[in-house]
Amino acid sequence: MIKFLLMVNQQGQTRLSRYFEPVELNRRAAQEAAVVRCCLSRNKEQCSFVEYQDFKLVYRQYAALYVVVGVSHTENELSIFELIQNFVEVLDRYFSRVSELDIMFNLDSVHIILDEMIQNGHIVETNKNRILAPLTAINKMADG
Questions:
Q1: Whole-angstrom Cα distance, residue 11 to residue 55?
Q2: Cα gap 60→87, rounded to integer Å
Q3: What CATH number has the domain bearing residue 70?
Q4: Domain count across the chain
Q5: Which domain holds residue 96?
Q6: What positions does the domain AP complex mu/sigma subunit occupy (predicted)?
Q7: How far, in Å, CA of 105 to CA of 68, rounded?
Q8: Contacts of 22 (CB under 8 A, 6+ apart)
Q9: What is the per-residue pLDDT across 10-61, written as a single tens digit (0 to 9) for each?
Q10: Cys-Cys link to 57, which of 22, 50, 67, 128 (CB 3.0-4.6 A)?
Q11: pTM of the prediction?
């Protein structure tokens, strides 16, 4: 099960956080800081899967952004690695070369994409056209 998904820049600033399990607000900040430090301190030659406290971290770097996913110990790391790739490909298709600024200024659209892909910590959709269908409909209504 997916516990959380974070998008952070190279300075460690969180640009997107989504939790699929309840975590107290004061604990979230400390946990995010520790997770980000753990991932950013690793070099590119090291594995992108990290055993961390009571869960595993799967992360991937895209340009200046890191996508970090916390999962339970029973989750398949490679499937999560592919989920991260698919998520970024969907963002790229929607924003035509996604950047950190796209994430910051269109957070609602990014959350809609994430909600279409993951529900209650489980992957429910991977088809890019189906994931983008609600946003396409919203954009058509806004233009019409």
A1: 24
A2: 11
A3: 3.30.450.60
A4: 1
A5: 2-143
A6: 1-141
A7: 20
A8: none
A9: 999 999 999 999 999 989 999 999 999 999 999 888 999 999 888 999 999 9
A10: 50
A11: 0.93
